[in-house]
Design brief:
The protein has helices at 6-32, 40-61, 91-95, 166-180, 193-201, 215-227, 241-244, 255-262; strands spanning 65-69, 73-75, 78-89, 102-109, 112-120, 125-130, 134-137, 140-141, 155-157, 207-210, 231-233, 247-250. The N and C termini lie far apart (42 Å). The mean pLDDT is 90. A hairpin with a 3-residue loop joins strand 6 (125-130) and strand 7. The protein is α+β, with helices and mostly antiparallel strands. The chain has an 8-stranded mixed β-sheet with strand order 2-1-3-4-5-6-7-8, with helices on both faces. A 4-stranded mixed β-sheet has the order 9-10-12-11, with helices on both faces. It is globular. Its cofactor is Mg(2+). This is inositol-phosphate phosphatase. It catalyses: a myo-inositol phosphate + H2O = myo-inositol + phosphate.
Length: 264
């Protein structure tokens, strides 16, 4: 990897160790698809196993850092530094044997994300970034796309889910309809918010929006996109996406066009 720093090295090591379990368990999930029991309980156990490995590795390297993780919640220690972890982002894909999910780790310093890593263990793609040092996919520098017209773009989205309230479901479907009439290719719903953000950073897609995302869903992606030259805002173009949980990620050139559709 071209970008190397103590924190990035710690994150990479943790991801690779956890990924060994994840890949093995994914093979078992594929077998469970045809069983009467189904894979649900197995996936829950897998999620917790991956989380434990990540936490153990990160705590071993940085014992004083706080940790916020999807399954276990907050482990409060040093308030200056905090790891934000999503052990399996794209759990539904994992559950159904769809090979599109990732491990996501962000590092926060004084409420600002300074490092992020998103690892797709199936494709062996390591997306990572550090503040001021750029954004990378394996050993290649990443840049967002240069497309400036929505008609030429591919846009990713997520939701609504069964957890969404009725109002959010209505708004999400309305947004989907509005975008569908303005984007040249169909919208994509891939099922992993962190990988969606990584793909914007890599220039594979041009924008992404979603409602009701948790911090661990987006923490690593925030720094990836920013260091690749993209924009991260809420639907009104402000930086309140962590507070209101509504995030818009773009290559920067289509940001205003997307805000015009999404703002409320």
């Amino acid at each position: 990897m071209r970008l190397s720093s103590p924190n990035i090295n710690v994150m990479v090591k943790a991801c690779r160790k956890a990924a060994k379990i994840l890949i093995r368990d994914f093979g078992e999930v594929e077998k469970l698809q045809v069983s009467l029991k189904g894979p649900g309980d197995f996936v829950t156990v897998s999620d917790k196993k991956v989380e434990k490995i990540l936490i153990d590795e990160l705590q071993k390297a940085r014992p004083n850092y706080s940790i916020l993780s999807e399954e276990i919640g907050l482990i409060k220690k040093d308030e200056e530094f905090k790891w934000i972890i999503d052990p399996i982002d794209g759990t539904a894909n994992f559950l159904h044997g769809v090979p599109h999910f990732g491990i996501s780790i962000g590092l926060e310093h004084n409420k600002e994300i300074i490092c992020g890593i998103i690892y797709d263990p199936i494709k062996n793609e390591m997306f990572f970034a550090e503040k001021g040092n750029g954004s990378y996919l394996n050993d290649q520098r990443m840049r967002v796309s240069a497309r400036s017209k929505l008609m030429d773009c591919i846009i990713f989205t997520g939701g609504p889910s069964f957890k969404s309230n009725d109002e959010d479901k209505k708004l999400s479907l309305k947004e989907y309809e509005k975008f569908s009439s303005k984007v040249g290719t169909p919208l994509r719903k891939m099922g992993s918010a962190s990988l969606d953000m990584a793909y914007v950073a890599a220039g594979r897609c041009d924008g992404f929006w979603q409602r009701n995302l948790n911090y661990w869903d987006i923490a690593a992606g925030i720094i990836l996109v920013k260091e690749a030259g993209g924009f991260v805002t809420d639907f009104n173009g402000n930086d309140k996406y962590i507070e209101n949980k509504n995030i818009l990620v773009t290559n920067s050139k289509i940001n205003e066009q997307m805000i015009e559709i999404l703002k409320y």
